[in-house]
């Protein structure tokens, strides 16, 4: 199938809404699972959107903007995964790999904004010093507009304008290459998990990582809820244990202070 | 109704803000990233979100308004979902006309630790759990997956309202609550988060060899007859730790994605996977 002009415009509109949300992080509709589903709906294949959403969400689990690195953009990745899968009849897992260049391009645009929006700061400072609240509010809409529009333009160009060359590229890809992209889509979550581990993993927590890994390997179950619940059990035990410990530490300190204070009083 | 009236009376005495206005502070806290830049991070959005409240406090004091706006244009970077607490807390102090340097000092002392707690809870615990579960439902084409994800995050969006009230009502008492519990909360969140990540590695990183190695007359399937006999999912686990090691060596995450793609394409080309 082809993306029609109406669909292209609708996709651009959706990219503007979810892109704005991606910038503000309010409703989290910028995550692939939502982006893909809505894009599927626009293209008239909800089922494909939902499946692609699940796969892309997993690939991006852990690829978070926390910890100082801006990951490939989830909005463009979600949209292009569904568009490529729908227009080329490729498997969604392969489409994730092919959509990644678009996601990285958007990532670099956002990084550019993060640096260049410093240019607005002198103006903000000026309005603050003047106590000019109206101008201050208005100025905030400029970066918001720039971000929203660039999401719309990027999505329209990628989904609508670039579909013919994309089709040619996909059709000319040999089987081993498409298979390679499919494999990469399955391995990609490892990158996110490694990034999470870099931030979270300390020696004392390795035991819990191992516990979760062994449990999920041994219990064939369709999701990680049982693992999460066992994790919650340990979290609860530790919560009460450390609370008691802190209480105890406080009491010991108080007793120490009292005996010291007492000694001083006696001296006086 | 009686208790409602009482609450209202109580709030009325100490506050120039209505309940609704404090709720709106929670909603407005979503604006903090509006003019994000590396130089001062959330500062302009943070100031914008709270402007109407300062305008009310400093209605007849233009210099006070200028001072509060200028002060808040300083660097601030914390966890967005926890901003309502910080805003509520600082608003009580602003309303009580606490000394400017005290407010500024407190703001600077709190946003760092709150960023740590917030990231541990929202990005590293809730995101992998909710994302993992709803994705595993969606993967099979079940539309309940995205719906579940949306509802959970809608709830988290809504939770900014009670958090704003919490910060505002606790006032300076919130400082003790935050400082006392921040260590425990991030400790507990790390335990839960890492257990889940361990599970996610086993469930969602898909790597298995398809190559068969001939040794004399017998043909051995490397994955089924060797690796799976040692431990299932040993390959994904090892690969995650290879990437982890690269990250510890300060390799840019973009390179990890490149490494992943090159590995996958090479494996596909030589027919090992």
UniProtKB/TrEMBL annotation, chain A:
Residues annotated as transmembrane: 29-48, 98-121, 141-162, 183-201, 207-240
Keywords: Cell membrane, Membrane, Phosphotransferase system, Sugar transport, Transmembrane, Transmembrane helix, Transport
Membrane topology: Multi-pass membrane protein
InterPro entries in UniProt: GatZ_KbaZ_carbometab (IPR050303), PTS_IIC_man (IPR004700)
GO biological process, one term: phosphoenolpyruvate-dependent sugar phosphotransferase system
Location in or out of the cell: Cell membrane
Keyword Translocase: no
One cellular-component annotation, GO: plasma membrane
Record's keyword annotation contains Transmembrane: yes
NCBIfam families: PRK09757.1
Record protein name field: PTS galactosamine transporter subunit IIC
The gene coding this protein: agaC
């Amino acid at each position: 199938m082809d993306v029609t002009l109406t669909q292209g415009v609708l996709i651009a509109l959706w990219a503007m809404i979810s892109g704005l949300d991606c910038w503000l992080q309010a409703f989290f509709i910028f995550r692939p699972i939502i982006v893909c589903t809505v894009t599927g709906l626009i293209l008239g294949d909800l089922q494909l959107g939902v499946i692609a959403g699940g796969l892309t969400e997993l690939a991006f689990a852990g690829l978070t903007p926390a910890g100082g690195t801006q990951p490939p953009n989830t909005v463009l990745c979600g949209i292009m995964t569904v568009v490529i899968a729908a227009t080329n009849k490729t498997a969604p897992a392969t489409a994730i790999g092919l959509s990644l260049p678009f996601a990285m391009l958007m990532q670099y645009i956002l990084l550019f904004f993060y640096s260049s929006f410093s240019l607005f700061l002198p103006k903000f400072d000026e309005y603050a010093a003047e106590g000019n609240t109206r101008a201050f509010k208005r100025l905030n809409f400029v970066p918001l507009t720039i971000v929203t529009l660039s999401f719309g333009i990027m999505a329209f160009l990628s989904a609508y304008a670039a579909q013919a060359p994309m089709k040619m590229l996909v059709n000319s890809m040999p089987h081993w290459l498409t298979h390679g992209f499919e494999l990469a889509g399955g391995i990609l979550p490892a990158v996110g998990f490694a990034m999470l581990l870099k931030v979270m993993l300390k020696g004392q927590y390795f035991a819990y990582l191992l516990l979760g890994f062994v449990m999920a390997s041994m219990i064939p179950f369709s999701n990680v809820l049982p693992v999460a619940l066992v994790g919650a059990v340990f979290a609860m035990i530790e919560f009460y244990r450390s609370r008691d410990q802190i209480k105890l530490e406080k009491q010991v300190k108080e007793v120490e202070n009292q005996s010291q204070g007492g000694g001083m009083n006696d001296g006086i | 109704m009686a208790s409602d009236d009482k609450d209202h009376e109580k709030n009325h005495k100490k506050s120039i803000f209505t309940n609704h206005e404090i709720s709106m502070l929670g909603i407005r806290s979503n604006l903090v990233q509006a003019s994000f830049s590396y130089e001062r991070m959330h500062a302009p959005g943070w100031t914008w979100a709270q402007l109407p409240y300062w305008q009310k406090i400093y209605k007849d004091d233009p210099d006070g308004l200028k001072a509060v706006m200028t002060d808040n244009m300083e660097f601030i970077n914390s966890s967005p979902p926890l901003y309502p607490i910080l805003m509520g807390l600082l608003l009580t102090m602003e309303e009580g006309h606490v000394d400017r340097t005290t407010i500024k000092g407190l703001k600077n002392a709190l946003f760092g630790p709150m960023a740590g707690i917030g990231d541990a809870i929202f990005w590293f615990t809730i995101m992998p759990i909710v994302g993992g579960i709803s994705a595993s439902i969606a993967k099979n084409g079940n539309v309940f997956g995205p719906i579940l994800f949306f509802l959970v995050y809608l709830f988290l969006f809504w939770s900014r309202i009670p958090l704003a009230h919490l910060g505002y009502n606790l006032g300076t008492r919130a400082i003790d609550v935050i400082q006392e519990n921040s260590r425990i909360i991030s400790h507990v969140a790390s335990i839960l988060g890492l257990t889940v990540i361990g599970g996610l590695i086993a469930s969602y990183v898909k790597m298995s060899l398809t190559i068969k190695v001939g040794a004399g007359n017998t043909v051995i399937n490397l994955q089924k007859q060797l690796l799976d006999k040692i431990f299932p999912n040993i390959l994904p686990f090892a690969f995650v730790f290879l990437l982890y090691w690269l990250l510890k060596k300060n390799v840019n995450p973009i390179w990890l994605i490149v490494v992943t793609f090159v590995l996958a394409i090479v494996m596909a080309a030589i027919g090992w996977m």
